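dumping the sequnces here before i forget
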Amino acid sequence: MDYTPLWISVKVAATATVFTFFLGLAAARLVLSLGRWKGAVDGLFSLPMVLPPTVVGFFLLLLFGRNSALGKLLERCGAAVIFTWQGAVIAAAAVAFPIMYRTARGAFEQVDADLIHAARTLGMSEIRIFFRILLPVARPGVMAAVILAFARALGEFGATIMIAGNIPGRTQTMSVAVYTAMQSGDRELAFRWVAVIMLISFVSMFFMNYIVERKGRGGV
Amino acid sequence: MSLFVDIEKRLGSFRLKVCFETADEVFAILGASGCGKSLTLKCIAGIERPDRGVIRLDGRTLFDSGKRINLPVRKRRIGYLFQDYALFPNMTVFENILCGTGDKEAARELAARFYLEGKEQLYPAQLSGGQKQRAALARMLAAKPDYLLLDEPFSALDNYLKSRLERELMEVLDEYGRRALFVSHDRNEVYRLTDRIAVMENGEVADIRSKRELFEAPRTMAAALLTGCKNVSRLEYREDGLYALDWGFYLRTADTGGQMEQKFRYAAVRAHYFEAVRELSEQDKYNTLVCDIIREIEDAFSVVILFRNQCGEQTGDYSILTAEFSREEWNEIRERTVYRGRPLCLRIPEQRIMLMER
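..and the predicted 3d for all of it:
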């Protein structure tokens, strides 16, 4: 069995999770500080979660395709996105982003508002409050967000196949490999990939529950 | 040198409208829960933003809706002691204190000042209620605030800890120039710790007075009830004088001037001012009643008697009166009356009757 889809999947999902982590936290912090436009911005950020992944893929193709300004610019720099593993990263990040953002925001909102108020009365700056109090106190929730986002990125299919295609050894991820194996009638190979994916998903969920439970015990 | 507050804020159907000025004193806001006292503190600290008004501290404008000034919380230099202390759970006691000051030496001194030596490396979850409060006080003072806001600081503590921490807080307040605003619903706490009291009701300040005046002669029914007065009655001006509708007897008070103007609507008397009288004569029409005892409640050191006026025709809640006697006193009274089948007659001394306009 050729294991390259596993390595490609892990590489793509891990890279996408790193981007999603920072973007999601920034988005969560931004939305918390918004007043009137909170609902609208929240809706915009959450959109990729409710849209079919193919629609996300469609928009990403519009944005990064050869006919778009951004696509042309990237091509000139020699950093093509379409049909590359970097494209798969963008697809996975776009789809995992709302999960990271929403879970992190939920974790931030769970933090006792008086802690933040107290920090302000002590004269702490907003940046210090975020890194010294909000983020550490919400850490279990943020970790859960990372795991969920990673799991989502790992399983991404629709947007990935549209933007990165299905090139064995280059952009073929595990979920795409399952599809390809079934299409070519190789049920045994499909079963194997299904087993690998299920194992990884189960371990992720196990980790998440472990972390959330530790939070329940009042761990710091 | 003072805090001046004159603000308005709407929150749903609730309307906050407070105005007061403090001098170098410990000032208290006394009110039932939900009266808006915590909201007032939050507006002063800058956590909540008033719709309209002005907040000034020692001539420094913290908020002025007219001039569009709204100083951010961290620039107001106001210390805030939260009801549940709001210690940062992810930091040790020492790190918590350090959040208020960058100076490690100062933080160490404050920890020692608040009996937290040896506890510096513990997390808030490992502290007792009293230690949490001390840590919160130390952290607040580390930031060298110009003024202190204390939001029900003792409500999360066990009774036996309360009196000790109260004494510690008194020392702190004396040390820091008695410049603090204290919010509570506990009249005894407020009386012991503060100099002047604002009584708050439904989002408005009903009465502001020195604590002695307030407890001796509250001007409003809300103030009377909040200062722990158990007996109140509506009044009516009749030919024979002032009649307490709920109690069912006539009143004669030390203050006759106000009576002439017929401006009072309520009367109140504290439970421990009742006196037992031996015999009831004809002229004892005023301030005197024969009791129908409803219940005797034994407290640790006193006895509380719930009763009704025998000749009173009222049945409302306020027609049940409360009197409090020391145990010895009550035993003696009981010997003389109840045990011998004689009625219990009580009198309120003239100077103990409080009259109120609203």
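The interface with chain B takes residues 112, 114-115, 117-125, 132-133, 136-137, 139, 218, 220 of chain A (CB under 8 Å).
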